[in-house]
Amino acid sequence: MLDTPIVAVAGATSKQGRSVVRSLLQGGGYRVRALTRDPASQVAQSLERQGAELVAGSLSLGSDDAWVDAFSGARAAFLVTPPTPPRGSREYELGCRIADAAVRAGVEHVVFSALENVDETTGGKLFAPHFTDKARVAEYISGLPVASTFVILSFFYTNLMEYYVPRVEDGSLVLPIYLPEDFRAPFVDPVTATGPAVREIISKPERYDGETLPIVGDVISPREMVRTFQDVTGLRAEYRDAFTYDGLARNFPELVADDLHAQEILGMVNYAVEYGYFRQDRDLEWSRSIDPEALTWEQFLRATGWRGEARSYG
């Protein structure tokens, strides 16, 4: 047991973190050290019952020494930065310092959850700092003296449950979705798909060193999503525009209360529509080739039993 390699998971109670912890423990062959802000939380305690070692490690600036301690003795580390509002964001600094701590602790392989560089791709035309900052962190990690691999998750299915929650209108369930009705985009369930991909990468560090790999569950349009939702649930449902500013403001006025936040949301979705969510050279089949059980939208609906209610996934 003491010879079993340790994998440290930063942000272990996040959607992606939980998925990685679970996959590593269920597959065997690794000890998992779960970094969490609150080891006493219900989610953290659930990870401990699954076999993870809990370590206090908040993903906030100023925790550098705690990160080094938490990473010490680990062979690999999975790193994720938390959702950060655009106003005054220090996500880039946070991501770099967490990676620095992993290197200082002697970690041999870092896997970071990144996104594409919207600023670079659009020549500064569109504003989506939570994409661009993660891409810049990945670029920084690439220059560190450590093997590194990057995963990029698709749009989350869970966004519709947490942030773009449907409502009932004239007897039908209205689904306001942040993409044009017939635009097909990549989606994924972060809670089940992240772990198998990261486990594959960590098990073959030489093969995946330097790679950036998309994680995809389905490529589907809002029209198809609504139709599938109706077929699975038996509920009447209709698409509504949350892609334009007017549509977003009409359906979710709280999301446009902060102009900068609204600008970021619209920058993100317009980037996906105009340029593609992933760079054209990304291998969109990779994650499904190593994890054939990755959930499609239909399978996700059947697995979760979701019928349009708000849900929190942490």
From TrEMBL:
Keyword NADP: yes
Keywords: NADP
Gene3D superfamilies: NAD(P)-binding Rossmann-like Domain (3.40.50.720), UDP-galactose 4-epimerase, domain 1 (3.90.25.10)
NmrA-like domain: residues covered: 6-301
InterPro entries attached to this UniProt entry: NAD(P)-bd_dom_sf, NmrA-like, NmrA-like_oxidored
Record-linked Pfam families: NmrA
Family per record: Belongs to the NmrA-type oxidoreductase family.
Official protein name in the record: NmrA/HSCARG family protein
Organism this protein belongs to: Actinomyces viscosus
